[in-house]
Amino acid sequence: MRSGILYLSSLIGAIILIAASQLIAADTGAGVVLPADRLSIEQPRYSGQWKGNDLTVEYSYSRDRGIMDLSGRIRFSYSLIMGYSSLREFRLGAIILDENGRVLEEIGLATNRDSLDPIPFSRRIDLPPKAVSMAFSYQGRAVDVGRGKTSFWFYPIH
After folding, report:
1. Around 63, how many Cα atoms within 13 Å sit in the side-chain half-sphere?
2. Residue pair 49/118 in contact by the 8 Å Cβ criterion
3. Tell me: the pLDDT tens digits for 41-70?
4. Which domain does 17 fall in, by range?
5. Is the pLDDT of residue 84 over 60?
6. Residues facing residue 148 across a β-bridge
7. What is the pLDDT of residue 74?
8. Which residues contact 136 (CB under 8 A, 6 or more apart)?
9. Within this chain, do residues 95 and 62 fall inside the same structural domain, yes or no?
10. What angle do CA 65, 59, 118 make, to 5 degrees?
């Protein structure tokens, strides 16, 4: 009888521990973007420019009733354009954030192109109810026959 109670209490303790660890993992999995990397999306319309180390994103959005139309152009840095001949596996993303910079959603905006020419993008986004800002993320590789290749990226989630 005593071993049955000990087994049952151990089983209940293990279930509570597993449930608690899943709640903690779910809470910390969201990630946060620092204030310096956040771009407000609270105005009904806005046009601006965001500069990363490897590229500049010229963007504009219009927002109405939880839907945002986001469009723009990606321009690569002088060092990439002058040093490499083509682009591989490139991706630009938008990270939608709440008032504390917590990640609500990540959305792809542009992918794979062969040249380092400016890349246009346009996307209609259903915004989560608590969305007040966004951030850009990117990753890619540039290649040149004589020079080799380089990888570049920016991922602001901590």
Report:
1. 19
2. no
3. 999 999 999 999 999 999 999 999 999 999
4. 1-30
5. yes
6. 144
7. 97
8. 39, 50, 52, 57, 92, 93, 94, 95, 154
9. yes
10. 140
The model's pTM: 0.81
- Shared domain check, 50 and 9: no
DSSP string for residues in the chain: -HHHHHHHHHHHHHHHHHHHHHHHHHHHTS-BB-GGG-EE--SSEEEEEEE-SSEEEEEEEEEETTEEEEEEEEEE-HHHHHH-SEEEEEEEEEEEE-TT-BEEEEEEEEE--SS-S-EEEEEEEE--TT--EEEEEEEEEEEETTTEEEEEEE--B-
For the chain, the domain total comes to: 2
